[in-house]
Design goal:
Structural class: mainly alpha
Low-confidence stretches: 1-8, 426-438
Number of helices: 29
Strand order of the largest sheet: 2-1-3
Helix content: over 70%
Distance between the termini: 88 Å
Strand content: under 5%
Length: 618
């Protein structure tokens, strides 16, 4: 038996097998942690995501080229290919290739991540059928149980991992309470839909489902993350509206109006206005206005290709408004726009943004048309997936495309489009003896395993090097103790290996260089600092580190030259200007000193830096 859709033939056993594998892979991506790494959360998730995508690619190669020639005609396929091609092209053009391909420090949102996302969504689009929805909902159910249980343990202080965590303790396996609450909210929406789905089918499952939704709600409350609560309320309301209330009735219209009003008040409240402000407003939400305006400024100055894929953090200081450093500190920065759409726009430019928006709009329009087409029981699950996807998009306006969160966007799109594709009139199950002979399932599985092993062996060398680099950075931190000469020797051993590793990012390498200096290895540290300063001339953090080193070496004139450059990279850093003014005071250049004093007092007179400038620069 084979599946025919859009003249596409894939054996049903193969499709089901691949569906189960992807659902299991998603579960592992969400749960995996590996503490002996520099980034114990995102790095292992990236590794598992890549392995899953390459194993899936092996399946796609095994089923034959003509399958993909058929599916390649669809708009959804074309839009995804355009998006990932633009992403790759911009990654090649980006100044920081590491960020572009592997992602920013503690983010991992580069080309490799999005390539894996696109592979997974296209495979799901190709193979998915309505009857497979239960397999994914079983995975959602299991993940909800694990997340809920772990979150409760964390709330009780019984976490089995000793995290260095500056946030609320409810971080589950994603490292941040906002991310954890967002994922638990999405799971809560999905399980609520599963509860409705099973009301007349399996009462026991319904009881378990509504109990699980209650547990997830409690865990989100304990995380103290407003966005999780808002997403959960929005999603549950929308599922109720779409699934339980009949179309066109007065009650549904009234409920829709209520959702809109409460949603609008929630958005206004997040901005510290309206009656809900005292319940919803958090400074971490309002600060996003600074991130968004900086992102827009990056786009205005670099409209075609942005500032470089996942390089927002390298340019934030240059484009931030003066109010941000005045309010939060001159050395506080951000590495992400905290808005997926603006992150795309600022780091990838207009074409990447438009290609991403085109995929979103296409899926939205096609799904909306399909919502009222079917009346079978699976339609409840489809509507639930659709609502969860909309909820993800809503939270992506104020959040980061962290792997464990952003993955859901592409999974949901693949499922939605797969169900829609399989519902077309020309999609049918039939017997085709000639085709079966050509595409024997056993033969495909054998081919897939061989090709999969070849692909994974091909990427194993860079992946092993990447993991080695992450572990070397971790070990260097373990031994970092400038007051102990014996531990400094061990630190130097791991630090030098990590610095020479091509798969260690610039942030870790900068910490290694300054760490070597702190441990007394002046030659080794200064050489590496100079390498970074030459490679990243537009990254203010690197140039600041160089200025500090030159100052300690009493090379004041050279330090002044570096700090002058920093003014262009960080125009509202009064701390840098103050130090530079002191340099010129020491060097006897009173005119330049007074120029800098005047500049500081124009925007930072009420800050400690402004007060020092007023008193000490005479």
């Amino acid at each position: 038996m084979i599946l025919r859709g859009d003249a596409l033939l894939i054996d049903q056993k193969i499709a089901l097998r691949l569906t189960k594998f992807i659902s299991l892979g998603i579960l592992f991506v969400e749960l995996v942690l590996f503490t002996p790494l520099s980034d114990p959360v995102n790095s292992p998730k990236l590794i598992i995501l890549l392995l899953v995508s390459f194993w899936v690619i092996a399946y796609s190669i095994s089923i034959g080229l003509q399958v993909w020639l058929k599916v390649a005609k669809s708009p959804f396929f074309i839009l995804n290919v355009i998006f990932i091609f633009i992403f790759f092209f911009l990654s090649v053009l980006s100044q920081d290739k590491f960020n572009a391909f592997l992602g920013e420090y503690l983010r991992k949102d580069g080309f490799t991540t999005y390539f894996s996302f696109v592979i997974i969504t296209l495979i799901l689009y190709t193979i998915f059928r309505p009857e497979y929805l239960n397999h994914f909902f079983n995975m959602f159910f299991l993940l909800s149980i694990i997340f809920g249980s772990y979150a409760i343990l964390q709330s009780l202080g019984k976490d089995f991992i000793n995290w260095a965590n500056p946030y609320n303790q409810i971080i589950v396996t994603v490292g941040n309470p906002n991310f954890s609450s967002a994922i638990m909210a999405l799971l809560g929406i999905l399980i609520f839909g599963y509860f409705i789905h099973n009301l007349n089918l399996n009462r026991l499952k319904s009881i378990f489902s509504i109990t699980l939704v209650s547990i997830l709600f409690y865990c989100i409350l304990m995380s103290n993350s407003r966005q999780g609560l808002i997403i959960l309320f929005f999603g549950l309301s929308l599922v109720t509206n779409l699934v339980l209330l009949r179309k066109g009735t007065y009650l549904r219209r009234l409920f829709s109006a209520l959702i809109f009003i409460v949603g609008l008040l929630s958005v206004i409240g997040m901005l510290n206005y309206g009656p809900l402000a005292k319940y919803i407003y958090k400074d971490s939400i309002s600060v996003r206005g600074y991130y968004w305006r900086a992102a827009l400024e990056m786009f205005y100055r670099n409209p075609v290709q942005g500032v470089g894929i996942d390089s927002y953090g390298d340019f934030f200081r240059q484009y931030r408004e003066v109010g941000y450093p005045i309010k939060y500190g001159f050395n506080i920065t951000s590495t992400n726009a905290h808005n997926v759409f603006l992150q795309m726009l600022s780091t990838g430019g207009i074409f990447l943004f438009l290609s991403y928006i085109s995929i979103i709009l296409y899926v939205f329009v096609v799904s909306l048309k399909y919502l009222n087409v079917t009346s079978n029981q699976n339609n409840i699950l489809f509507k639930t997936i659709f609502v969860a996807w909309i909820a993800y998009l809503a939270q992506s306006v104020i959040s980061i495309d962290m792997i464990a969160v952003a993955l859901w966007n592409w999974v949901f799109m693949g499922i939605l489009m797969g169900v829609i594709r399989s519902s077309k009139k020309d999609f049918q199950v039939e017997i085709d003896s000639k085709r079966i002979k050509k595409n024997n399932p056993t033969e495909i599985i054998v081919k897939q395993r061989v090709i999969g092993l070849i692909l994974i062996l091909g990427v194993s060398i860079p992946l092993i090097s990447y993991l080695k680099g992450e572990n070397q950075v971790y070990m260097s931190r373990v031994f970092f103790n400038p007051s102990s000469s014996s531990t400094c020797v061990e630190y130097k051993k791991y630090a030098e290996k990590a610095f020479d590793n091509k798969f260690v990012d610039s942030f870790d390498k900068l910490n290694i260089a300054t760490g070597l200096l702190d441990c007394g290895y002046k030659n080794e540290g200064s050489q590496r600092l100079e390498i970074l300063a030459s490679k990243y001339p537009n990254v203010s953090e690197v140039q600041l580190a160089k200025a500090h080193f030159l100052e300690k070496e009493n090379k004041i004139s050279d330090a002044a030259t570096v700090r002058e450059k920093i003014i262009n990279l960080d125009p509202y850093n009064a701390n840098n200007m103050l130090q530079l003014a002191f340099y010129y005071q020491y060097l006897g250049d009173k005119n330049r000193m007074l120029e800098l004093k005047s500049r500081i007092l124009k925007f930072a007179a009420e800050t400690p830096e402004g007060e020092r400038a007023s008193k000490e620069l005479q």
